[in-house]
Amino acid sequence: MSTNTEALKTNLGEAGTHLKQAASAAGEALKNAASAAGDEMKLGKVQVKSELADGALAGIGAAENIKAATGEQVDALMDKGRDLIDSAAELIRERPLAAFGVAFATGWIIAKLARSDK
């Protein structure tokens, strides 16, 4: 099962590959232009356009997956945050006096630091 993030990475990789091939085709076309007739240049131009079109399509595919991939990442972070809050709540239920002590000490330290700045 492929996630949107994996699809995004695949599309971006494919876009990069096509752009690299387009550059390679362009370079090859320029080399051939020096020694070959205008027909070779036309063929290179067609290859460049083809690779750029394929690269654009892969880029569009990546753009379509950005929203879903971002949503997946946000959902994962929210789940981790909920787990952390649940863990803290469980710790407070198990040891209420220790939790109160830590909260009190933290408040006292913050108050001390705030007063020392003035």
Task: Give a description of the structure.
With 118 residues, the protein is mainly α. The protein has one domain (4-116). Helices cover 93% and strands 0% of the residues. The chain contains three helices and no strands. The chain has helices at residues 4-35, 38-94, 96-116. Helix 1 (4-35) runs antiparallel to helix 2 and helix 2 (38-94) crosses helix 3 (96-116). The radius of gyration is 29 Å and the shape is elongated. The protein starts with a helix and ends with a helix.
Short characterization:
This protein is mainly alpha-helical and 118 residues long. It is 93% helix and 0% strand.
Present the secondary structure layout:
Layout: H1 4-35, H2 38-94, H3 96-116
**Shape, please?**
elongated
First-to-last CA distance: 58 Å
* Alpha-carbon Rg, integer: 29 Å
Mean pLDDT over the full residue set = 81
Pattern of helices and strands? HHH
Number of domains: 1
Please tally the β strands and state the result: 0
Query: Helical residue percent?
Result: over 70%
Primary descriptors:
118 residues; mainly alpha; 3 helices; 93% helix; 0% strand
